[in-house]
TrEMBL record:
It comes from the Bacteria. This is Low temperature requirement protein A. It comes from Lactiplantibacillus pentosus (Lactobacillus pentosus). InterPro entries: Low_temperature_requirement_A. The chain crosses the membrane at residues 48-69, 81-103, 115-133, 145-163, 169-190, 211-231, 237-259, 271-297, 303-323, 335-354.
Length: 385
């Protein structure tokens, strides 16, 4: 058995941290499968929009992004070029791809097949963390807690397969809550680890970069939807809207990297680290939802859809500013910071009453002002230093 493991290789231990770690091609390859996940959710919502499909899409999104975040966190702390890690990340990609096949039926409330894919992801991660507990003496106790939490969630998923539909969805939600809260169960063990190794609680730069790449995949899904809209219409008005929307996507991307791209986040506990990490995921969710609202508003420019688009865009900016405030002491505080937030909200809501074309132009201008404001803050910080 040891000969087999020597051939497959071993994960890095938690104290074997790589300064300035670069994202590997293997991680980038894994991220690409989520373009399929986003596309399947988007197509299902656009074709059958209702409160039921919206709620199911939210649950599906967070399940898939939890799996991505857990696998990414593992690879950031323990990943290397060993055959074992190549197998782990590729198997996770396969399970994710299998799950994406069943997204359309899950959007309508049938989770039977998708739950099996989630169960495979859950069991795979439980096995991974039990393996880390065996190889990594320092990280072993926390890893065992995570593995046991995943086994509990796996048990809940199995139970959901044998319960009526209304109860099965509630059980699937409960399993997700267990997964998202695993750090709370492991926190005492993690704190002992950090004291033992003198490590600092940080959201690692490499993970921040991964969040940025996933955000760009979500923005790419918006662009793909815009191409489809123009291809179906072919009118000059649609082409003009397409150009304005592409500018908007570029401005959102620019705002994201200007606000979050250069942050170095140091915190005081593992719980604060995971909560900040979930803020990054929340921002991806809001940007993804904004893209769907934009797609729908271009098809049918109702006030409700336009307000939903503006609200999701503002929510995304608000989360970015919250993360920035966590990372940069004094940034965005005081009366001026509050006024900027309120003014942005007021403008984004007000422009929803404009015709769609002019609304898009106005939103582009607002996002341009956001970028100018952030550049001013960055320049001011450099001068004050």
């Amino acid at each position: 058995m040891m000969t087999v493991f020597n051939f497959l290789g071993r994960p890095r231990t938690i104290d074997d941290q790589i300064d300035g770690r670069k994202i590997s091609w293997l991680e980038l390859f894994y991220d690409l499968i989520f373009a399929v996940v986003f596309s399947r959710i988007t197509d299902g919502l656009v074709e059958h929009l209702s409160w039921t499909t919206i709620l199911n899409a939210t649950l599906i999104f967070w399940w898939f992004l939890w799996g991505w975040s857990e696998t990414s966190g593992y690879f950031d702390n323990h990943g290397n070029g060993s055959i074992l890690n190549v197998i782990i990340i590729n198997v996770q990609m396969i399970f994710t791809g299998i799950g994406a096949i069943f997204i359309p039926e899950a959007l309508h409330g049938n989770y039977t097949h998708l739950t099996i894919a989630f169960l495979l992801i859950e069991l795979m991660l439980a096995a991974v963390w039990f393996g880390i507990a065996h190889y990594d003496r320092i990280h072993g106790s926390a890893s065992r807690v995570w593995a046991n939490v995943h086994l509990v969630s796996a048990g809940l998923l199995i139970i959901s397969q044998f319960t009526p539909n209304r109860w099965s969805i509630a059980i699937i939600v409960l399993a997700l809550i267990f997964n998202l809260g695993d750090v709370f169960f492991a926190n005492p063990n993690l704190e002992r680890e950090y004291q033992q190794t003198n490590m600092t609680h940080v959201v690692k730069d490499s993970l921040i970069e991964r969040y940025g790449l996933m955000t760009m995949i979500a923005l790419g899904e918006i662009i793909a939807g815009l191409y489809e809209a123009v291809a179906e219409s072919g009118q000059s008005v649609a082409l003009s809207q397409f150009i304005i929307c592409i500018i908007l996507i570029a401005l959102v991307s620019g705002s994201y990297y200007l606000i979050l791209g250069e942050l170095h986040i140091t915190l005081s506990s593992s719980i604060k680290v995971i909560m900040t990490s979930w803020l990054f995921i929340l921002d991806i969710f809001l940007i993804f939802g904004m893209g769907i609202a934009l797609h729908l508003a271009l098809d049918e420019a109702t006030l409700t859809l336009k307000l939903a688009f503006s609200g999701l865009l503002f929510g995304s900016l608000l989360v970015m500013w919250a993360i920035e405030k966590i990372a940069v002491s004094g940034r965005g505080t005081g009366l001026s910071g509050i006024l900027v937030i309120l003014l942005t909200l007021l403008l984004l809501v007000a422009v929803a009453w404009l015709p769609m074309m002019w609304m898009l132009v106005a939103v582009d201008c607002i996002m341009g002002l956001v970028i100018v404001h952030e550049r001013y803050l960055a320049h001011r910080d450099v001068i004050t230093k």
